[in-house]
Protein: EGF-like domain-containing protein
Organism: Didymodactylos carnosus
Amino acid sequence: MPCQNGGICRTSSTGFTCDCVRGVKGDQCQTIGNQCQSDSCLNGGTCISMLNRFVCLGAQGYSGTICKEELNVCESSPCMHNSTCINGVSRFDCACALGFRGSHCEQNINECESAPCLNNGVCQDQVSPRCELTISACTSNPCVFGACIHVPTQYNALKLHFDPK
């Protein structure tokens, strides 16, 4: 077929002619016209001319036919541990939940690292460090006549017998 790009061939007594589809030129419809206008693609996208249409490529952070819609990078939930994702153009930031840090809030902060507990308290790592201190129930001298023996959460009086002999 002598006509290209969807052109319709018409024969005549002197040969043939091609009726080209919209956007195509040339004696045999061999030249595809430029479908791109100067403002076809937005946000820095590159226009690629095709037969009867154009395609926009390469606008980072945007999608759609003319690169108009901003991509929401937070849709993929990149922030960990129930942290908040803040969407930007082709980037995101994470507002980390308490107790976490890092670009994706992936690092657990050890609140006990700074040794916040005093007086021999034992630190338990959590969002607000918790200090545990075992206090002997015998500290207040509750046993009047005898020795106090500390048992966690209680005390027992040990009676001393005195034999005057």
Observations:
- DSSP finds no helices and 16 strands in the chain.
